[in-house]
Amino acid sequence: MQTSFTLAQLADPDIAASEKILRACVHCGFCIATCPTYLLDGNELDSPRGRIYLIKDMLENDRAATAEVALHIDRCLSCLACMTTCPSGVHYMHLVDHARVHIEHTYRRPRGERLLRAMLAKLMPYPRRFQLALAAAILGKPFAPLAQGVGLKRLAAMLRLAPWRGPHRPLAPQIFPAAGPRIKGRVALLAGCVNDVLAPQINAAAIRVLTRSGVEVVVAEGAGCCGSLVHHMGRKEEALSQARANIDAWAALEGLDAIVITTSGCGTTVKDYGFMLRTDPAYAERAGKVAGLARDISEYLAALPLAADQSAPGLVVAYHAACSLQHGQRVTRQPKELLVKLGFQVKDVPDGHLCCGSAGTYNILQPDIARRLRERKVGTIEGLRPDVIAAGNIGCMTQIAAGTKLPAVHTVELIDWATGGPRPPALREHRSTMHPSAAAG
Around 328, how many Cα atoms within 13 Å sit in the side-chain half-sphere? Predict the structure, then answer.
């Protein structure tokens, strides 16, 4: 794609990076075939190619974002299926991230939308605040239909997504020693923000599998939200501040083999720290090292000699490939290979490249599109008649579980169970729906 940025514009490193991405695009349109929002309504402006044209026009002309531009960029899930499809290597993720920052700085949203986005940015990345918000949401859940009925769709979406059970306490900084006489590895675990408050069993399962395998696990003092939630709302400085805090926390640890992450959306962001902080002389080098150490839990476990416990159940597992894992990190084989190795029967979900509609805060900010994508995803999953749904991202688990009675668990929960750990809580609650052999396990 031909561009016409001035030399003065290209002196800005963000503009220079986006200009390079734009020039890689050849207008082929392959991306359209795998874009969830385009497939729903067929609007070219809700496709990667259409959004690229909008972003190019806005940035080249140094123009403030308009309501139309904000609408179509906001509808982008950042699922990154387009990047997997693109034959020209267009790094759409960095381009749309830049566009979101430009929109945040130059477009004044309606008051209600500003308040909602500010609330999400000030609550979700902070576990203690998020705990209080979830406790309040339990009281409001019965009123979700009323909120929907009076047009408060986003409030209704938040209430429906909130669990009926109370929030959990976040994981405190500590060291989990490796089992056995010899330590085979040492990793930092990103406890995260939403993950531990909603589903502490995920990190607990990861810690059990790792320590049983002789790996010491450290939850670092000072590490917190990866920055992804605010990053995808265009709040650049907040995202970078959270990234710097994590880098400082992990840089203080010695002898790390990896930084293990159980939420794939977080993993995609941490692996991008090197790019995000490339112009910060105080952090650029360390950010690159942290990004190089980051591993999804399935990546790290794939290199360990895991063995199935004799009582491992042979459940039929519908494996949902989270977008951030398959497109953002290009991790596709390891989760499924681990499950098969440990005795599960794994089925790929048809149209598995398409997003479930979670996408961080997307299912709150764009509830109608998110609902349609969930219905499509749940329909393809239920057609497989599985015993359980496995995914590598808490957002996907929450989104899909809101539309089906099938249990949805994290992949590492099944790995833990098969290698001697406890049955995942969601499977205990759904024991009656499983095959007899699995229910007895």
Answer: 27
What does the alpha-carbon distance between residue 209 and residue 379 come to, in Å, rounded to a whole number?
Answer: 32
- Between CA 101 and CA 183 the distance in angstroms is 44
* Interstrand relation of 258-261 and 294-296 (parallel, antiparallel or unpaired): parallel
Q: For residue 436, what pLDDT band results from cuts at 50, 70 and 90?
A: very low
Residue 186 has pLDDT above 70, yes or no: yes
Strand partners, 186: 216
What span, in angstroms and rounded, lies between the C-alpha atoms of 396 and 359?
8
pLDDT band of residue 431 (cuts 50, 70, 90) is: low
Q: How far is CA 188 from the centre of its chain?
A: 19
Length of the chain: 441
pLDDT at res. 203: 96
Q: Are 57 and 102 in contact (CB under 8 A)?
A: no
List pLDDT tens digits, range 82-122: 999 999 999 999 999 999 999 999 999 999 999 999 999 99
Q: Order the strands of the 174-176 sheet from edge to edge.
A: 174-176, 215-219, 185-190, 258-261, 294-296
- In this structure, what token pair is assigned to residue 58? 């806005």
Q: Which CATH architecture has domain 306-439?
A: 3-Layer(aba) Sandwich (3.40)
Two structure tokens written together for 224: 């917190």
CATH number corresponding to 7-106 = 1.10.1060.10
Domain ranges of the chain: 7-106, 111-161, 174-301, 306-439
Same fold, 7-106 and 306-439: no
Distance CA 89, CA 83 (A): 7
**Domain 174-301 in this protein, CATH class:** alpha beta
State both tokens at 281: 């002389």
Cα(3)–Cα(16) distance, integer angstroms:
11
